Amino acid sequence: MGFLIRLAITAVALWITTLIVPGVEVSGRSGANTALTLIVVALIFGVVNAVLKPLIQVVGCVFYLLTLGLFALVVNALLFLLTDWIAGVLDLPFQVDGFWAAFWGAIVMAVVTWLISVVVPDSLEG
After folding, report:
1. CA distance readout (Å), 116 to 38, 50, 76, 82, 112
2. Which residues lie below 8 Å from residue 36, measured CB to CB, with a gap of 6+?
């Protein structure tokens, strides 16, 4: 149950990101198609973050220290671009138009995900 709640939170955050950040787009043929695309892209984003982010943090810990953590913003943008690439390979109608769209998209995703997680009770997240 907790996994499904986190997936829904990420999908909603992704949808809000597409509304706020120019260059981050989902272009489904219908509302249901767009919702399904958001869920699948949220799943891809979650897997990419769960698998690669810890590895990058271990390997790039020196860069995190030298930049006082600002390197994390670049890493998040690159992971967002990787999610876009994987969605493209899977022929999903999700696009991120370049590094800066990914940079701001990753920031908005993080903030919106955090805000929604604050509102959702811990008992639902499991």
Report:
1. 16, 19, 19, 24, 6
2. 28
Instruction: Give dist(CA 47, CA 44) in Å, integer.
Output: 5
Strand residue runs (E) in the chain = 24-26, 94-96
What is the rounded CA–CA span in Å between residue 91 and residue 85?
Answer: 10
How far apart (Å, rounded) are the C-alpha atoms in residues 24 and 54?
Answer: 25
Sequence letter at residue 52 = L
Average pLDDT over residues 102-117: 92
Q: Buried b vs exposed e over 20-45: b needs ≥16 C-beta within 10 Å?
A: ebebbebeeeeeeebeebbbbbbebb
Tens-digit pLDDT profile for residues 112-123: 999 998 888 766
